[in-house]
Amino acid sequence: MSGVIARRRGISRLFACILAASALAAGAARADTFEIQVDQAKIMKLPDRVATIVIGNPLIADAALQAGGILVITGKGYGSTNMLALDRSGRVIMDRTVQVLSPKGEGLVTVYKGADRESYSCSPECAPRITLGDNDKYFAATMGESSARTGGSGAAASGSAPAPH
User: Fold this and answer.
1) pTM of this prediction?
2) Residue 133 lies in a domain
């Protein structure tokens, strides 16, 4: 009987070791994931000798290498992609997963009209906000207003008046 108990303890210890190893591996996988929100930018310090950055899917994330080993990563679309950092000889120095998440914030309001969706930024007053997944017509109209406003401010800064609508 003691042989059976000893085997059970051995199996229990083996099972505990396997669970601990898988928990460590899951923690390591999370540590290799860089999370960012869509339409936001974050800064990452790179290892020494990085010469090139490669983003697997540039529709999900974009990266700009800056002086001093600083990388600016911008969330472009929802999802997950990978990012590679290469040295001058093409060796991979870093391989990270970039996970782009939906925007967070107390001021974000999403309105559903049947299958159509519209997003608003409500802090402190509500105004249309361009968010991936919004209804095409609403997205285009909001983007047009934003572009007109940006064009008008650029013309004002240069001293010329914007074209009439």
Assistant:
1) 0.59
2) yes
